[in-house]
Amino acid sequence: MARKIFNSPSFVKPTVVDVAPKLLGHDNWVFLDGKAHVDFRKGLNSLFTKQALECYLPGQDDVYNRYFKDFVAITKEAGGKPVPFMAMFREVMCAVSLRSFVGHYISDEAVKKIADDYYLITEALELVNFPIILPYTKTWYGKKAADMVLDEFAKCVAKSKVRMAAGGDVTCIMDAWVKSILESKRWREAGEEGIATNNLEKPVPLLRDFTDMEISQTLFTFLFASQDATSSAATWLFQIAAQRPDVLDRIREENIKARDGDAMAPVNMDQLESMKYTRAVVRELLRYRPPVLMVPYVAKKDFPISKDYTVPKGAMVIPTTYMALRDPEVYTNPDEFDPERYFSGDAEEKGAKNYLVFGLGPHYCIGQTYAQLNLALCIGKASMMLNWEHHPTPLSEEIKVFATIFPKDDCPLTFEERKN
Ligand code: HEM
């Protein structure tokens, strides 16, 4: 049933709480539907190819190198006592996203400010469905934070346009997009001026011009879509890896081998892809603790969803990812965390139709490969640089929902530096 909803774009489209267009911009691409949405998305696909993702790796590496040192410092400052790490995971993931999306055009201070303030944006969206924004309410603070991010990103676009026009190399998603836009413009102008284009490669797809604010808004949707989901996954990943030393040992072994024992050595895409066990852990983690439990859609017209029921036009219809991911006919002991099912088992083939973690149909997650490789990079590096312990409380396995899912005790951990 969930698959049917995701895959019925002629009957349904995604819907959001009233405040979302105010935060993201009314004319944002994520609110497009049908052909207009498909066309816009085509222009973004090239930003997530293997070749493109490789360019963003050094920025990600850099952030982990720095934050993992902070993890150790936090434990030291707390006198070795456990500290709830959920907020810290949110900050690291925000910093990683920002480096991947807008590279080094943004200062460390701005990264820190956005990471801190992003919490206000998620809070503003906490199912608030109030049509106006009143001063000093959650939505007001959320809007202020969103405007600040949009302004910062627009400044980055201006800098990226200058650097890409001067032939600089691509270091982030923004560069990749700006470069494609400039190449398209060059091609079009050459055609218009009757200049031979045989020394130019025709860009596919040929992009139109985008304003700084349009690019900023689109990158903001990436941050918006990734921040809560990736933070949720990272929090559970660290909690579960600590609870399962057998799993963590195998991740570590695989990473040491792939990186010739040097935790600080930059990793490339082939190495990352070769780490099959680490990637199986991420895959299973996302099945076991799917960050996005529900995706709200709305019926554009009467939608005969089954023999006996037609969803009336205008009603919300909300596919959940959870049931498919716990289907006992596909996953033996579905409530057990078992990476083996994705490493040596048949979960990938048998559960091909069940893996709704990233949605399905025309709106499926554009960042899914990036997200999984980033989580593999994160836990792989951590396994080499850190030892950590989870300090369970009665709330550790209880789930709270803050846009995505988190352990109710915010994941108390202690870290120490690992001497290899
Ligand atoms: C573990 C991390 C992530 C999870 C679990 C996740 C999950 C999802 C889900 C369930 C959807 C809705 C799909 C649908 O309606 O069919 C979605 C959409 C989306 N995601 Fe992700 N996501 C993650 C990370 C990311 C990242 C890192 C990015 C950006 C680079 C991203 C960008 C997007 C965008 C732009 C959409 C909307 C696509 C559209 O409407 O065409 N996501 N994601």
TrEMBL record:
- PROSITE patterns for this protein: CYTOCHROME_P450 (PS00086)
Give binding positions for heme: 365
Q: What is its EC number?
A: 1.14.19.41
User: Which CDD domains does the UniProt record give?
Assistant: CYP61_CYP710
Cofactor dependence is on:
heme
Cytoplasm recorded as keyword: no
Q: State any single GO MF term.
A: monooxygenase activity
Query: Keyword Cell inner membrane on this protein?
Result: no
Q: Which domain of life is it from?
A: Eukaryota
Q: Which reaction does it catalyse?
A: 5-dehydroepisterol + NADPH + O2 + H(+) = ergosta-5,7,22,24(28)-tetraen-3beta-ol + NADP(+) + 2 H2O
- Write the record's keywords in alphabetical order, separated by commas: Heme, Iron, Metal-binding, Monooxygenase, Oxidoreductase
GO aspect biological process, one term: sterol metabolic process
The record's annotation in PANTHER family points to: C-22 STEROL DESATURASE ERG5, CYTOCHROME P450 26
Similarity comment: Belongs to the cytochrome P450 family.
Entry protein name: sterol 22-desaturase
Q: Specify the species.
A: Zalerion maritima
